Amino acid sequence: MKKLVAAIDIGGTNTVFGLVDETGNILLKESIATEHFPIPEDLVAVVSEHIKKAFKDFASEYELIGAGIGAPNGNYFNGNIEFAPNLKWQGMIPIADLFSEHLHVKAVLTNDANAAAIGEMVFGGAKGLKDFLFITLGTGLGSGIVVNGEMVYGHDGFAGEIGHVIVYPDGRQCGCGRKGCLETYCSATGIKRTYSDLLMSHHDKANLQARVADAKYIYDKAIAGDKDAIEAFNQTGDVLGLALANSVAYTSPQVIFLFGGLALAGDFIFKPTIESFERNLLNIYKNKIKILPSLLKENDAALLGAASLILKELTKA
């Protein structure tokens, strides 16, 4: 009998869930608003019911063998969501145990960036790679570090927070409570701030609405030849390349994958990032490490990441 896994990605706004087979085919994909469930147990119950009901259509061909969950501040070791700032739930939420009880299968949790990194390894461009970094450039900057084919979790489950490396002491305020973190400069939010600062420095009152625009707006302006938009990408890539060059000294990865909305800007972000990266690398690493776009589809990455998490876990058993 063929095998299916439940895949669940819990975000601050929406929770996406579905059924995925062992080859990465998504047989079911649905979404509900996370914020409609102030009590996490209620969300788990509703999502589980949807999954169980949908699985009945596949039960003659498939066996449901596990559940993978990606979530902010998801701790792989204990299965808890721990004090996630972007979720309304408070404290420690035993989310893996809750899903396991409802779905009657093993459930495994990690943070959303780690799940996507495992998805890249199982279904994307990192197939066959044992050492790589996975960087998500979205609202913030998430990361997953894979060494010798295994995700790096550290002693407490929270290793790999490259987005919270401080690049400018006393720099921009970060949501983590500190100042100058990488994600305040190298993310959709960060480039928006950089572009707005450039406009303000040039007293460009005609384009001050850009302060409330998104990264896509800045990309469109760059394509049209706007010098400030192009400079915003250059400054973002310069900082990102330096941070990635420093991260190489710890793990010496074969490839660094960039994923997320900002990575879709192509050469506008990749060119300055790679130039800064090579310029700042220790000599022994130069010209050895590629920076590439992720091969995961933006719309499917969350589900494939969660699915690959549990599939990889079950192969260890």
How would you characterize the overall build of this protein?
With 317 residues, the protein is α/β, with parallel strands linked by helices. It folds into 2 domains: 136 residues, ATPase, nucleotide binding domain (Nucleotidyltransferase, domain 5); 165 residues, 2-Layer Sandwich (Nucleotidyltransferase, domain 5), CATH 3.30.420. Helix 6 crosses helix 7.
What's this entry about, in short?
The protein is 36% helix and 21% strand.
Task: Map the helices and strands.
Elements: E1 2-10, E2 14-21, E3 26-33, H1 40-55, E4 62-70, E5 81-82, E6 92-93, H2 95-103, E7 106-110, H3 112-123, E8 132-137, E9 141-147, E10 150-151, H4 188-201, H5 215-223, H6 227-251, E11 255-259, H7 267-280, E12 290-293, H8 301-316
Parallel strand pairs: 1-4, 4-7, 8-11, 11-12
Antiparallel strand pairs: 1-2, 2-3, 5-6, 8-9, 9-10
Helix pairs in contact: 1-2, 3-8, 4-6, 5-6, 6-7
